[in-house]
Amino acid sequence: MTEVLAALADLPIAQLAVRMVSVAVFIVLVSLISERVGPFFGAMVASLPVYTGPVYLFLALDHPPEFLARAAVASVAALGVTPVYLLIYGLFARAGHSMLLSLSAGLAAWIVCAVLIQFHDWSLVEALLFGVPIFAVATLLAPRFTDAIPQKAGERRWSDLVVRVLLVTIVVGIVNALSPFLPTQLTGILSIMPTITTSLIVVLHGRIGGPATAALLAHSIGGLIGMFSAVALVAATVAVWGPALSLSLALAVCVAWNLMLIAAKQGRALFKRRSR
Questions:
Q1: Distance in angstroms (rounded) separating the CA atoms of residues 76 and 123
Q2: Domain membership flag for residue 144
Q3: Residue 148: helix, strand or coil by DSSP?
Q4: Enclosing domain of residue 90
Q5: Does residue 276 form part of some domain?
Q6: C-alpha span between 99 and 89 (Å, rounded)
Q7: How many secondary structure helices (H) and strands (E) does the chain include?
């Protein structure tokens, strides 16, 4: 414990502050997008690696490529259970339960799965075989959650949003501060933990309603397929191609995938309008 406290005192505060501020800005951005243009486009932003990307960037600066490869394999496995978290939250939220109960149910499921994942030394093939079927089933179930209409923000004030954003960014800061002192596989799991998703639930559940928040998160499952593929790409290539190329290509995969989903949705909408 003494060694951890001493190491915490030596943390690069500027780097930690950048991560916390970026998360805060991101949460506000997604909140505004979801309230104004609907949950689908909010989900496309939410499923970008705004949390995971900086985590891996800083890991790449502090550790060799082999460390990143091992961490990324664990991230692939952990990302595979994220849809379970999203759908369980959605079930409770659409049933009219409170944010606390809905979030606790989903988060408890993710934590249990993450603990079980930590007990196994995963290969990339095993992680893919574990995650792909979960995403396939979740993609089939997600449309059941995407028909909600966002509520108006009502009497909620900006101060309410700011306070909640501050709370969740503090949590992000704590997680990022402790992650360097954890085993490689656990670091990989924490690097992909649903911090942004949890933050959005805390902020949006009261602002736009539980069903609309569940709709946003259900839409994000499609976007998370891009992140799942991108992290798998890092696990497979970072030790060979190096962090710069591997991480850059992974980011390109995430962005290209979400743009493709947006184009497909817009194309379907255009086709329906012309067929009327």
A1: 10
A2: yes
A3: coil
A4: 2-270
A5: no
A6: 9
A7: 13, 0
